[in-house]
Amino acid sequence: MVPSLAGKAPGLISSGQPDTTDAQYLERFNRAKRECFADRWRFERLWTRNIHYVNMRQWLGVYDRSNGWMDARIAKGVPRPVTAKPKEGLQAIRSMFTSAKLGVDVRPLKNNAQSVLTATTADKLAPVLYKANDMDQVLHEGDFWFIVCGNVIYHVSYDDNGKYVAVPYERCLSCNLEVTSDAIATAGQKCPACGQNKFTRAIGKDGQPRMDHVPQGDVVTTPLSPLEVAFPMQRPRWKDVDRLIRLRWRTKRYYEENSELKEYVPKIQFSKSPGERSLQIFQSLPFQTELNPSGSGAGGWTGEEEGVAEYELWEKPTQEHPDGLVLRVVGDSNPIVLHSESEGLPGPLPYHDAKGDPLWTFHHAGYEHVGGRVIASGAFDPVIQKFDQLNRLDSIYEMMMTRMAIPQIIKPKGQDIQWMGDSPAMPGLMAEYAPAPGGGKPEQWPGQDPPRAWVNLRQQIALEIDAGLGTNDILKGVKPPNVEAFSTMQLLIEAGEARFAGAFQSRANCFRDVSRSQIEIEREFGRDERVEAVLSAGRGYTFETFRKADLDGEVVYDVADGSTKPKTTLAERASIEHLKALGGIDMNDPDTRYAISQKLGQTDLIPTIDKQHVCALQNQEAFLKWVTQPMAAAFVPQPPAPSAPGVPPSAPIVPPDPSSDPNYPFTLLPWYDARVHRTELVKWAVSEDTIQLFRTLPIAKYFVGKYLGELESKVAEMQQQPPEPIKTTVSLKGEDLAVDPQVRQAWDRSQQLSAPAAPAQGPAAEPPQGAAKAMANSAQNSAPVGNTPQPAVGV
To answer: Is 478 helix (H, G, I), strand (E, B) or coil?
Structure first.
């Protein structure tokens, strides 16, 4: 890569060799086109057949190389039912791929600071580019071609949208250095070379002010079907593909509205349908519906708007073109080479890696690899004949029900019947008849049920289809009946995933290469600084700055763990239940309970613990901002100054408590759950980012250690057992219980006695006299302790 062109958009790079003529370009293109389209129809018929079956067009007959698949010729009146098994299988496999979260691990290739910085930056930038490229939608579309056709090609490119920002050049009056104004602003409004601050506008060779055009674009990833990319079929593997042609259909309006392409409109022969078979098939797909699927090709689709086929040739570096070649040709019968300065066409490969080598940004993934060829088999290839068998069986079954299962009425020959109604099929119909010469009367011929064995046959065919697709092994998030043991459930999950191990690996490897191209293009053509809002662990948005200069190191990309296996809720639940049964997890631990709820997506069921976790994470984020401020050092104890010989050392100065700062986040408040905050603090303190913080800012250790000590003291206080109650002996007399109502209530509670009934309101009774008084005294002296006061009774 030419150093002066670093950071320019691909369209600003010099386009091709000036001594190459259009005739030479066309000769090279025609030779490449013959190689790429040779015997391609053999695979086109497979791809279109699978697409038709998904779109519910399944009664196919002969394949015509001009018009595609023709409908099978079926006798009149024979039903043609179609099965939904292809669409069901597509949905099941597609959902399984979606549940596998793809990722990459970036590690430095060399032991130097630049490579380490690049690896760290690329690890954080990869998720940002994932979102910027809308990879969820890209992968969802790509998985359709991956499953149905067995092949998908992802193309990573730079899309500048045709928008550039003009930055003027300034010339230093001291050293005559010509530099852009943004570089002067970065250097503090001074010359980056001599440090002076006097400039004048730089003038180019054309006498006009010199300008630098900075592209305002982004990295774009496009999933391409095998119908949109042609390459030599003789190559045994993708890395051996040295050239390919990307096919497009451009409308006439597109050329008329493009300022660079207007001049080609009179030269191009526009038509309403492309001449190339693959492009015909692809252009017919928008008009194929489940209601009335149309054919593919010239006989099945003709557009109302005129257009033309575009062929974009990409070649890897050769001896003739050491930087590769990108060439765009338009038209079939009278091809024309397009020249575009904004896109740099014709020209070399526009993308390069950190070492300056040309970068190939087309990446292929195959569903089921077949030895000796790049083209892989799709999920439907082994079961297409089973689909046909099931459809034929359903057709025969339907004919039997409509022709033999319905009761019929027979009559002797020559007999005259008068129906007393509208139709002989009406229930309860009455008829008059005259006997035939040979006698006899009309009789009902009862219908015959189809054989029950056919039901079992149909079920067997459906099971064979599921086995061929592998969908019978997918648990689909539902726990199998009568399965409780974790080992059995895990065995079923692994058996279901084993069928797709190759597809998962191919998909993950392709995503790794796509991520590498995204980061390399971002390094070469992206913005100098990219500021992105990132959702932090504390559920708040933080702004991270990514600099293009931090991506200049050499790194290597690996498939991240978990990219080759789907993560199902069923498997996670089974693992948790198994660990719980073995005693491997403590459900009383708040951190464990929160981790389980978070994994199952049920944190709303523990709102208090969830709020405490979020609060702890937000405090950590606030501390990162607070500790970097200069005033934070004033709260750290300083060692005493060295004293002179013979002079007693001075006492250390006690700094103010950091909690006196209202912005200090590590303050233990009464409503904090100390156990949750301590756990989150320890996990955060041993993370890689915090360890790096301690290295660059040692005073942070003091605040983290101080806050940890406060939390541990609070946890220890919460875990301390309450003191045992003091054992006492109380001595009461009868009059104590009668005089003081509180003493009486306490005594009743200690003896588990019910409260005495309130005396009835009425006239005052006369005190007993004589024998009655003697009897009352006797009853009083013999009553149990606590009922009535007794003189001098010790307890």
So the answer is: coil
Hey, which residues does 60 pair with through a beta bridge?
71
Looking at the DSSP bridge assignments, the partners of residue 314 are: 244, 326
At position 535, the amino acid (one-letter code) is L
Burial of 274: CB neighbours in 10 Å, binned 0-12, 13-18, 19+: buried
**What's the predicted TM-score (pTM) here?**
0.74
Distance from CA of residue 324 to its chain's centroid? 34
Q: Quick one: which of 645, 664, 647 has its CA closest to 655?
A: 664
CA 266 to chain centre: 47
Cα–Cα distance for residue pair 277/275, rounded to 1 Å: 6
Structure-block tokens of residue 664? 């200090």
Per residue, the 3-state secondary structure of 352-369, as one string, reads ECCCCCECCCEEEEECEC
Residue 208 CB-half CA count within 13 A: 4
Specify the long-range contacts of residues 59-65, CB closer than 8 Å, at least 24 apart.
59/391, 65/41, 65/277
Q: Tell me the angle at which helices 486-498 and 569-582 cross, rounded to the nearest 10 degrees.
A: 150
Find out whether 483 and 544 touch, Cβ atoms under 8 Å: no
Over the chain (795 residues), the average pLDDT of each successive run of 10 is: 49 59 92 93 93 92 87 88 92 87 88 86 88 92 95 91 73 87 80 86 83 77 95 91 94 88 91 87 83 51 79 93 93 89 86 90 94 93 93 89 75 75 61 77 76 85 84 58 57 68 91 93 83 67 75 86 69 71 75 77 79 88 89 82 67 78 90 89 88 89 90 86 70 69 74 62 56 55 51 45
Residue type for position 555: V
How buried is 190 (Cβ within 10 angstroms: 0-12 exposed, 13-18 middle, 19+ buried)? middle
Contacts of 624 (CB under 8 A, 6+ apart): 693
Q: Helix, strand, or coil here: 524? A: helix
Q: Are 329 and 336 in contact (CB under 8 A)?
A: yes
Summarised one tens digit per residue, pLDDT across range 331-376 is 988 899 999 887 888 999 999 988 889 999 999 999 999 999 999 9
CA distance 301 to 288: 10
The strand order across the sheet containing 336-337 reads: 229-230, 243-251, 307-315, 325-330, 336-337
Furthest CA-CA distance within the chain = 151
Residue 366 phi/psi, 5° resolution? -115, 140
Specify whether the CB–CB gap between 300 and 234 falls below 8 A: no
Q: Where are the domains of the chain?
A: 164-215, 600-639+654-719
Query: Which residues have CB under 8 Å from 92's CB, separation 6+?
Result: 469, 471, 474, 476
